[in-house]
Amino acid sequence: MMQTLSLSEALSLIERRQPFHAEVEGVAQLKIEAYLPIVSCAIHAGHRLSPALASQCLLTDEERRFEEDPATDTLISAQPITLVGCDSRFEYDLNRAQALSTYFKSAWSKPVWRRPLSAQKRSQCQQKHRRFYQLYDGLIASLEKQFSHVLVFDLHSYNYQRIERKVPVFNIGTGQIDMERWGTVVQRFNRELGRVRLPNLSVESKLDDVFQGRGYLIAHTTARFDRTLVLPTEVKKVFMDEHSGELYPQVMEALALGLKEAFTQTSALFERQFNRRRHASKHQMLATRIDPKVVALDKALYQLAKGMETLPYINPVNLQQEKQRYLANPKGYCPRFRYRQQRLNPFEFREQLYRLPFDSISDAGVRQLYQQVADNLSMRVELLTSVGSDQFRYNSLRYYGKPDERTLKQAGFLLQAAAKPEADEPRLTVQQVCEQLRGHAQQLGIACRVQASGTLAAKAMVMSEKASLMINRHAQFTEREAQALAHHELGVHMTTTINGRAQPLKLLSLGLPGFTETQEGLAILAEYHSGCLTLGRLKLLAARVMAVDSMLRDDHLPTTVNRLMEEAGLAQDDAFIAAARAYRGGGLTKDYQYLSGFCTMLTLRQQRDLSPLYTGKCALAYLEILEELCQRGWLHSAMPVTPTSPAQREPVMAFVLDSLTQAA
């Protein structure tokens, strides 16, 4: 909750380097999440007029907003130190010298006041101007003392529809910047702004195109602080209707994300170049303390969505019975699966979900992460509550997608390359497999239960809520398959389950959008690195892709079984299980993601550090924000407990995998 502080109280906290978020003397909102040499200002974001002036003002709210900089405070809210003007620039303009800060009678050729302001009222306004700069000076002086050099982002917005030429989305004014001294930072900032992507808009950033940066904030700063660089920046009001003041939410979100990236990249360069922090990264330019509003939202979201398991409700309860009926009459019987009853009320869930205060999160990247998880949970609920209906297949396509042309070609390649049958190996009992897995879990330091189950469509499955590994009592395992299972289920799925539950933010135990493909890709990669991946296993992954494709095209389980037997070379029993996995629920497209995820991880393991993906139920699309949150200390870093590279490359397997990543 925002505090209310006097100027002296705020300066005292700054002197003692205490974080706070407060309105100071009624003139500015100052947020200090972390003491870093980076200050972001939105001095024209305020709209407030004192009652005495409001009664004399001739301008409507819309007319005032037209000349103010609405929402610029929102655009900088992810930054560790923000200074925002509270009052309208028509009361006192913080970008003009104190004596000129109050408009006597008119502004921009428009009458502002019913009568000229009295000397007393002008003096009162100018006192607020003076207090703002006393606060600003105290902050900059303290930061220069602590860090030597300081960077100030001075963000404004401008109206463009009255300009009769093409103007850039971003304009940096360099009229008061020593470009010989600070030019590398200015040019880097200009490049970063040019990289911002906005929906349905082309983006360009220029120096001194529309404005030259002649404002008072930079003039005041350069007159008093030799080691502080101010970057006066104007953003075109493409994020709003400049006449009505109505914001465009999608543009606002993209702009906030883009500015966060541009600010942090530029700040990191500034730190490396002027404060001699040679290894400063953009993530270190953000606060390390978790925003309490994020913690509150995270807790509420977790309480609402925890325990939402998917597969137990999608797996048929009569799978084994229907399998026996089908095998007894494969040409005349089409299985009819039954499912567990749902306890979830989808309408109540979504109602509670979208009441959560996502907008309370100031960091655009973190806010977007939570919003997308919420949308994904909503889709998961639709998937679960449509099990057994015609709508399920459509919901599965929305949630999991379907195999693309590349994945289909990779599957076709594997079915040809892995066609050679493998030698039979002795089979272990389910009890032996469970004992081996319990021993492996103990070696890894994983506290979990391992037990047999008769209702699984897969050979094994991790139950996240109970931290249990369920083994299909009807399945058979070779020694190598049991070892692969240990690395797949315990080394990845159980590990990410436990890691997610141990995080300060419980979001990662719920699962990020697209986490299935990433987690299954990591799990198959673990099988490969441990030396347990076989050509037969790859063939099965390819057959699952074929099963999903056949389900979508043929919509007839016996036809899919026959295709798997004829084209993939599966035995009838294996073909039925692969087909049943694709038809369960009404048509589940999930199974293609084992192969597509593996191929993605196989390629990326040489290019990027994948360890952030082990912090919980993570997805590759969020690797960047996961890296950021780990570096900021919001998440505990995690390392894989499985081998990270193959002990030895078997020539045949190496050839197949090298060819697989090139198949398209």
TrEMBL record:
Which Pfam family name is an example for this entry? Answer: MATCAP
* Single GO molecular function: metallopeptidase activity
Question: Which keywords label this protein?
Answer: Hydrolase, Metalloprotease, Protease
Q: Which cofactor does it need?
A: Zn(2+)
**Might you name a Gene Ontology BP term for this protein?**
proteolysis
What species does this protein belong to?
Answer: Ferrimonas sediminum
Q: Which domain of life is it from?
A: Bacteria
Entry-linked InterPro entries = CHP02421_QEGLA, MATCAP, N-FG_amidohydro
* Record protein name field: N-formylglutamate amidohydrolase
